[in-house]
Predict the structure.
Amino acid sequence: MGRKNVEYSRANLPDITLRWADCFSRSSSATQGDIDVLYMVIERFKNNDAKAVYRRFRDRGRMAPEGLSYLESWVETNFDRCFQLMECGDPGLIEEWAAHWRDLVEFEFVPVRRSKEAAAIIASEL
């Protein structure tokens, strides 16, 4: 609805793009870094090789930097994709974390909000 899509990406990791305009409420004056943002991280296992991902996780752990919080995850029953809910205020932390996995996983990062918050934001427009 007329929102400008502002993109943030780091030169050293150009294949990860986060859409900051989608992270904040329609009338919010918040800017990046002001608040923690929830992200639905969609991971597609390269070469359909979930075993390689699980092996690395077993051997090295999640490898998330401090400030990036893992909340929950779900895996497709056929092991093609994983959906992780993560939270942070600095998109650079997601990029730092993804760098440890990029050889095994293709990422999509979707800023999301809880349904209760979405309902409160949209209520004035109904």
About this structure: The radius of gyration is 16 Å.
